[in-house]
């Protein structure tokens, strides 16, 4: 994401390879619908499992930043195609889940850079919250300011807050999506809460109540 931490937000995933350029249409392959997602049955089983388990979360996260459903469809397809082309490399990583999440994030960053525009996160996240009729968001006077501040958090803090606060995934699910421990999620949220409190001029307990809603 452009501008989240002032440096293009590449700090946590510098070792993630750049997304591959795709040349020409792919060969037709057998497909099966699993869990509401279309999975390429010629892909490795563990990659298909990743698509089924986390494909929806990848899509929601990317959509918050791109703000366009069609562009998000193409981007997430590209992410899994890139992972498929280098799956042997992926499996050699110490933490496969974290590596794959990093590929998604790098692909989102690259897409925004090509479009030469900042992330749509602040407006998209606020609209997402209101569309869900979540009373805690509607009652939050500083809602837009809060989402803007979340958008400026360091990379991993931002991701944890987006997954658990904006997209409302349980901590254990967010940990699996990002490939980190539950303790890591809690630690990153505590750090994020302190930074949000400082930026918004709130005491830490007020920021904690806002972030936990």
Count of spatially separate domains: 2
| CATH topology group of the largest domain | Arc Repressor Mutant, subunit A
Q: State which percent range the strand residues make up.
A: under 5%
Radius of gyration from CA coordinates: 17 Å
Number of contiguous helices: 11
Broad shape: globular
Order of helices and strands: EEHHHHHHHHHHH
Question: Whole-number average pLDDT?
Answer: 77
Q: Architecture of the largest domain, according to CATH?
A: Orthogonal Bundle
For the terminal residues, how far apart are their CA atoms? 25 Å
CATH class of the largest domain: Mainly Alpha
What is the CATH superfamily label of the largest domain?
Answer: Winged helix-like DNA-binding domain superfamily/Winged helix DNA-binding domain
Number of beta strands: 2
Blueprint of the fold:
Elements: E1 31-34, E2 37-40, H1 45-66, H2 69-85, H3 87-91, H4 96-115, H5 121-131, H6 135-138, H7 143-151, H8 155-166, H9 171-178, H10 182-200, H11 204-212
Antiparallel strand pairs: 1-2
Helix pairs in contact: 1-2, 1-4, 1-5, 2-4, 5-7, 7-10, 8-9, 8-10, 9-10, 10-11
Description of the structure:
This protein is mostly helical. The protein folds into two domains: 31-115; 121-212, Arc Repressor Mutant, subunit A, CATH 1.10.10.10. Helix content is 64%, strand content 4%. A two-stranded antiparallel ribbon has the order 1-2. The protein is globular and about 50 Å long. 36% of the residues are buried.
């Amino acid at each position: 994401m452009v501008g989240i931490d002032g440096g293009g937000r590449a700090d946590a995933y510098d070792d993630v390879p750049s997304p591959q350029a795709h040349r020409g249409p792919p060969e037709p392959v057998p497909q099966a619908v699993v869990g509401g997602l279309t999975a390429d049955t010629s892909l490795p089983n563990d990659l298909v499992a990743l698509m089924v388990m986390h494909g929806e979360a990848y899509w929601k996260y990317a959509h918050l930043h791109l703000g366009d459903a069609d562009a998000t469809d193409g981007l997430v397809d590209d992410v899994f195609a890139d992972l498929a082309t280098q799956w042997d490399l992926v499996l050699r990583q110490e933490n496969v889940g974290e590596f794959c999440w990093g590929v998604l994030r790098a692909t989102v960053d690259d897409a925004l850079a090509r479009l030469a525009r900042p992330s749509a996160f602040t407006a998209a996240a606020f609209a997402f919250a209101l569309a869900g009729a979540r009373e805690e968001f509607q009652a939050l006077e500083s809602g837009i300011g809060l989402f803007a501040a979340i958008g400026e958090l360091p990379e991993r803090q931002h991701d944890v807050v987006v997954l658990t606060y904006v997209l409302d995934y349980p901590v254990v699910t967010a940990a699996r999506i990002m490939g980190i421990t539950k303790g890591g999620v809690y630690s990153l949220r505590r750090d994020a809460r302190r930074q949000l409190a400082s930026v918004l001029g709130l005491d830490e307990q007020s920021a904690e109540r806002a972030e936990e809603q």
